[in-house]
Amino acid sequence: MAFFDILKNQLMSQVKREVAKTVNEKVKTVEKGRNHTETFIFANLPTNVIQLKALPESSLDTAFKSVALCIAVLCNYEKDANSTWEMLDYLKGPESVNEKEMLFIKERLSGKQYKTLSFFKGATADNGYTPSVPYTITVSENPYSFDEENWATLYVTSGGADSPRPVKLRRKPSTNQWFINDIQCLADIRIPASQDEWA
After folding, report:
1. From CA 73, how far away is CA 82, in angstroms rounded?
2. For residues 159 and 185, what is the distance between their CA atoms, to the nearest angstrom?
3. Is residue 136 classed exposed, middle or buried when 0-12, 13-18 and 19+ CB atoms within 10 A define those classes?
4. Residues 137, 156: contact at Cβ < 8 Å?
5. Minimal CA–CA distance to 167: which of 112, 116, 111?
6. Of 44, 57, 133, 167, most Cβ neighbours within 10 A?
7. Average pLDDT over the chain, rounded to whole?
């Protein structure tokens, strides 16, 4: 009988260890991917580097701040492309906006500035993507956003799209700042109702 008690105790200990291990893994997964969101409010959108650097988010000490500023900066493209490149240079950190990136942004935004405005609260196809003022934007993560060390992919939601759009970032460990790496959120969205002949 003692042999079976020992065997039973060993088996129970092993089961408890496996259960604890599984629970710990699930807790880590939940903590890792909380689908955390952060909301940012801007009285005005920056039109030059000086205005950009004056914003508290310009510390770039979280990936969320960097994404919010990236969208705010892109709203300036049709007004002043050169100032927009200068601001994006700041948001890209050690790198500068290259010719390929400039061409990509030009192709996506020329005549379609409403795309960047669509990421702000209140902007819909019905109102021509006119955001509410002050400008409010929400940036979110998913369970895989921070899977790779010093890299992140966060998301912004457009009032003209059905799913969130990504922005990829890279962290510079020496300064603990998050810099824009790849602006992947500029795919087409529903056109403003005023431009839709089928509306």
Report:
1. 11
2. 13
3. middle
4. yes
5. 116
6. 167
7. 90
Percent of the chain with pLDDT over 90: 79
How much is the average pLDDT of 161-183? 98
Whole-prediction pTM value?
0.82
**Cis bond leading into 134, ω under 30°?**
yes
- Taking only the tens place, the pLDDT of each residue in 54-69 is 999 999 999 999 999 9
